[in-house]
Amino acid sequence: MPTKAQFKTLMADASAYVEDYRVQNIDPAHRRADAAYHGILENLAEYEARGRSMLFIPKTRDHVRRWTTTITNAFYQSDDIVTVEYGIDEAREGFTNEVVNRRLEGQTSFYRWLTGAAHTHCKTGNAVGKTGWEYEEREDRSSYDDPETGEEIEQITVSPVRDKPFFELVPFEQVQIDYRCTSTDPVQDSPFFRQWIPMYVTDVQDKFDRKEWKKPRGIDWDKLSNGPSSLETVRTARQGSMADPTQRNIGSASDGPALSYRQVWVVENYFRSGGTDWTFISLGDEHIVTEPERVTDKFVHRKRPFALSQYDPEAFRVYSDGIPEMFKGLQAEMNAIRNQRRDNVNIILNKNLLVKRGSGIQLASLINSRPNAITMGDRIGEEDVRYIPTPDVTGSSYREEEIAAADIEESSGQSRNTMGVNAPDRQTATASAISASSAGEIESYIIKGFIEGLVRPLLEMFYDNVVAMESDPDVLAFAAANTGLPPDETLLVRGELVINAGMGSTNKELKAAKLERSLDRCIQLAPVAPQFIKAAEEIMRDLLPLNGAKNIDRYLPPTQGQQAVGAAGIPPGESAVPPAAETAAPFNPGIPPALSEQTASTPNMGGFARGLMM
Question: Which of 373, 366, 364 is nearest to 351 (CA)?
């Protein structure tokens, strides 16, 4: 393991390298994205100097919001966000599935994290997420007298105050990574990964008082309040036209209560050396306050608890462009077209005039024209005052704006076809179908990239944490009530995690139509092969939530596993699925039972003849 002095050298070198790279390559794009999202013209000073129209058409914000909505809704089209699959034991599979989804939907801020991650993913091109487990305990001391000896005995009771998983969205400018690492998983493969975290001094002091961190000597709080310059510039641009709330620090640099609400930078460090990944906490690049630990020893999942997404993945590149950067030129063109048209309308309504010198015309009245205005003049003739002819270009500018809007939709992937709006230029039905299909493929591609790059790695780590550390009695009782098993954390099992989002999941009507076609085929085949009755029930379990049904157990009979779980006397951890189950006789509405039995028992009858007979 490197010494602390060597780690400090690595920290300083990493900060210098990342700062230089970001300032030249990444921060300008992020500032442009924030300005475009907040509707700030890039050449605003030029517009103001010339007195021009200064409209900003919010296409950038509109498309970022569209994609944020599309990605977020992809995770809430089914009853559960994820499904745990563990074919060895269906009962434990169901229990684990209830616990995991209960934590995601009710015990963590997953929805708010997801919307923020999708928004950052679309706006800046990269979203950084983090997951972990918060644990804090409290000691309660009480005393009592021993009835036999009369001595006072002190009793210490330790109880958890905070014991839950969490998801955190990390601003991209607060992350330092080696941009030379061009693997498919740069977070885990980069030789270093650092998260700069703003913390109040009062919270830092609390860490010192509880002996979680070692307090160094000679702390310069003023120096620790100033992080890398890119942190300040990008955060300021994100405020838009609003003032930066961190421009002034609260509290002085002295010790005591006056220092409490100053913000300083704490860094969570990950450095790989000699094939071993080490992690520790530092105050800026100055002081190491925890002992370095192996990542494989500190975390259950044995990985750095971070993941990084790319909106527009590009081979051999860590950084990705977001929506604003992808069509910044088209956004500028649309702003220019709209403002030029407004300028043209203003000139036509308030025409420019040629006034002959010495004609004695009241110029102030001409400049500030208004209804019923009176303009005085000594000589008023065609040679003294004359309008400058200005052509009306509004018709052509409307067409140019339509073309620019169509180009933006094509670049974004959110076209009129995907929103159920008639496309311009009177497309044929075939052309509209082709455009909608193409847009659907882009949508699926972007959602899949978001899931595989950011959500799946974090949910896999979250799943590992739940299986290893879940002990909350309320969560376990919730799972027990829904499965019939005892509230025992030993029933949690590590299986395969299936994320119920992705390809085609955002179009509920399309997904329901596919399920309905499959359901029709199962109903047609059920008299021939009774096992299709079970398949029809499973399809209905997916179809009912799409039609608004929340508690599908009200409409469908319980599965074999649920029936077995409901029986008494099943030991914890044992399979609740019976070794064999008789197949129920097919139920065919409107068909006499005798005819149905005769048809099913005829082995050599062809499918067409069997269908006619049914």
Answer: 366
